[in-house]
Write a structure and sequence with these properties.
This protein is α/β, with parallel strands linked by helices. The chain has two domains: 7-193, Rossmann fold (3-Layer(aba) Sandwich); 218-278, formyl-coa transferase, domain 3, CATH 3.30.1540. It is 34% helix and 14% strand. It is built from ten helices and eight strands. A six-stranded parallel β-sheet has the order 3-2-1-4-5-6, with helices on both faces. A hairpin with a 5-residue loop joins strand 7 and strand 8 (228-232). Helix 5 (123-130) crosses helix 7. The longest helix is centred in the middle third of the chain and has 26 residues, at 149-174. The protein is elongated.
Amino acid sequence: MALRGICVLELAGLAPGPFCGMILADFGAQVVRVDRPGASGDVSHLSRGKRSLVLDLKRPRGAAVLRRMCARADVLLEPFRSGVMEQLKLGPEILQGENPKLIYARLSGFGQSGRFSRVAGHDINYLALSGVLSKIGRSGENPYPPLNLLADFGGGGLMCALGIMMALFERTRSGKGQVIDANMVEGTAYLSSFLWKTQELWTQPRGQNILDGGAPFYTTYKTADGEFMAVGAIEPQFYQLLLKGLRSPGQQRKHRWSPELEMPSFLLSPQDLDCNLMNFPIR
């Protein structure tokens, strides 16, 4: 396993931190989750491959135990808002002073500096501030969040894991640890680089563009049995296969689609999902 022999201390938190720790454990790291006293355990259900212990970091004895553990660890993952660890006298200056090789990974909503750095938030808040939420939703409707996967898990946990991997690699050259400032807002904005660099694809209002559900060949349709069928036929060859499967060779050319020429839902709705899928054999 790639991370065999790497010791990670994960301070318990909500889903982004546990997801990051689970990724590291899945690739062989020894991950120890540090829970608060009285906590109900792993509420995120993301503790695969981890061990756990309880420490009260607000008490000198608990903080001292964590410091001793950090002196031998490779990575500390902390999910708190800016300033919390410093108040506990467990900031990177102290812990890396005792272990210069320690990688100190900070995973927060808004980062360690700025007007929101000490503000609480959730996935929908981070998604909104990144600008991505404004692009998700049907035309004429409110924007809606795609579960809590994009900001919490993609922009947060996954990006933090990537930062830890790069810091581990850099340490093989310098012999020193790094401080990682991973946060959901900037991570989500980075994930959406394609969105901001291809503005020519998003010239219409939300929900009226090719990739946001506005095109009849890239959207979902309800079937007769109440299920849904996802259609993604952007390229000409796939669009022709779609028309063939729908038994509608005379359907309008895709470059001429408009609200008046949308793919008629009756082509899908008379049949249930299984019947529709039979018209599109896997190739």
